[in-house]
Design goal:
The protein has 12 helices and 11 strands. It has 297 residues and is of the alpha/beta class. It is found in: Mitochondrion.
Amino acid sequence: MQRALTSILRLTRPWRPLQARGCSSVGATGVPEIQVHALAGRDQGITEIIMNRPHARNALGKVLVSELLEAVAQLREDRQVRVLLFRSGVKGVFCAGADLKEREQMNEVEVGVFVQRLRGLMDEIAAFPVPTIAAVDGFALGGGLELALACDLRVAAASSAVMGLIETTRGLLPGAGGTQRLPRCLGVALAKELIFTGRRLSGEQAQALRLVNHAVAQNEEGNAAYHRARELAQEILPQAPTAVRLSKVAIDRGMEVDIASGMAIEGICYAQNIPTRDRLEGMAAFKEKRPPRFVGK
């Protein structure tokens, strides 16, 4: 068992920096659908993926899904990324869900392939090696909420965010991980209620149910959740990068197994952290009563 767990928990292939620290993709309309920004200054280490498909309210179409997959795949290799933040460049909406107009043009086989690809995107976001945060300032419905659920942390605007797995109201069911991730977030009975009814929740209601970590009052610019998400990311930045990454592995993998196996996973992660320079630096900083200077090694 120990050998099997060690194989499962082996850290991903070595990080290598991206050649470009900012990029965008262009959809059929000529408008960039994805923008990737690496922040600087006090925010250095935070990278944003910005969805920018205003004509379709950031609906998850073929181009948007492909470019999200490509961006996540590239960024997972970039050691400079310490926190990944998903947000919208379209006011009033995070992501309206799957692009049903586009899906109407697909046959059954094409729909199956697309949904599998969409599910793969959510799995890649969930497995991203550093903390991920969704900033929900507007509508996050169906696949849009599934995207947010794939993130580690969620921040929503209390009044303007509208969240729900509404697929049953369209004759569908959640197909990108919602039936699995929502019960793990809320518990089985409540998740069933929300999925069966297709109910929509405000950001305030979502926080009361612990669907989001924070709900904040909206501002005039309509980006209050984004600003709170950045503040949350700033709290993560000073911490030891390897310890944060291994903590994420221990939590995520531990939730998938019984508690005894979960404890074994935690032990393996702890052992991997022991020889790191950052652990030694943390101990030295504590002894010398100074802030630690972590380097991610």
